[in-house]
Specification:
5 helices
């Protein structure tokens, strides 16, 4: 109370300090949320990529589906995953631009494919 009283006497306001503190907390919280969002998006894309690989394996390699029918299944796949082929290609291009990132991504996809195969057995 004495400290606050002295601050008030010197025309010292706590408003700027509180505002800076609030903005700092907001920035930190947003940064954490953004990082979590990026990680979530990466996991979702890994899963989507893995599922597309399994679709190709199942329909083209095992079922010998003709290209036109396979393409219809791929189109349906993208619709169900709420992504366009162009968005998918662009994301792959972004990830593959960095060799280390691409290797890590492919390792994650391999694990996801193995996991999905085990679930479907």
């Amino acid at each position: 109370m004495i400290l606050f009283h002295r601050m008030k006497r010197r025309n010292f306001s706590l408003a700027p300090i509180l505002a800076i503190s609030f903005v700092s907390v907001l920035v930190l919280a947003t940064g954490c949320r953004t990082q979590n969002s990026v990680q979530h998006e990466r996991k979702a894309f890994v899963s989507t990529y893995a599922e597309l690989l399994l679709l190709h394996e199942r329909e083209k390699m095992y079922n010998h589906l003709p290209d036109s029918l396979y393409q219809m299944k791929v189109d349906t796949f993208f619709l169900e995953h709420h992504v366009t082929k162009e968005q998918f290609r662009n994301t792959v291009a972004d990830i593959s631009a960095d060799e280390k990132n691409w290797k890590n991504f492919l390792q994650d996809v391999t694990r996801a494919v193995d996991s999905l195969r085990n679930v479907r057995r």
